[in-house]
Amino acid sequence: MRQRSVSKRRSGYTLLEMALVTALLVIVSSMSFPTVLGMYARQRMDAGIDSVRAGWAEARAQAVKEGRPYRFAVVTGKGNYRIAPDRDAYWSGSAPSDDPEGKGMIQERAMPHGVAFAAPGDNNPVSGETVLPAGQISPDQWTMVTVFLPDGTAREDVEITFSLKGTGPRVVQLRAMTGVVTMKSPGTH
Predict the structure, then answer these.
(1) Do the beta carbons of residue 140 and residue 123 sit within 8 Å?
(2) End-to-end CA separation in angstroms for the chain
(3) pLDDT value at residue 183
């Protein structure tokens, strides 16, 4: 009887096969990375816009509830905003202790990291840190955007430009009489 020779073949992958698969994974990952970053940036921008819209709704509701005007202000070039009664005493650094209308609501908030309020006409994303620490914003840094009145309206129509490095600017408009918030492309009317 003749015995057949059976060649034993090793199961597994060669170094060349592993290197090719790894190279393919690196190429696919590097191609999808900008897309993932762009989606994350858009999500942060949307979260910042939603935060401001909620702040506007809260300021409007508080003005109606208390029967007094509420101011919405921002720090231009940063992501901080503030809601407080429209009296200078609330914007001079601390809340007054003797407000005849009672203690008003004061809210200081910040948008997600990297999202900032652009100066009017400035479409360049802000670089560096975009959120100032709470309590370290001087009264002269606040820029009034609008005042919400006790009848549920605002004093004027508002347009705010949001910026974030890696994305285009986004403009949000508030209609004073109706409170309707819309988005538009920069440079259009």
Answers:
(1) no
(2) 95
(3) 84
- Structure pTM? 0.76
Could you tell me the fold of the domain covering 15-184?
A: minor pseudopilin epsh fold (3.55.40)
d(CA 158, CA 181): 9
Does the pLDDT at position 56 exceed 90?
yes
Domain ranges of the chain: 15-184
- In 3D space, the residue among 145, 144, 143, 152 whose CA is nearest the CA of residue 63 turns out to be 152
Cα separation, 131 vs 149, in Å, equals 28
Look at the alpha carbons of 82, 73, 50, 151 in this order and tell me if their dihedral is positive or negative. positive
Query: Whole-number mean pLDDT of the chain?
Result: 84
Cα separation, 64 vs 172, in Å, equals: 23
Check the CA dihedral 89-90-93-97 and report its sign. positive
pLDDT of residue 5: 57
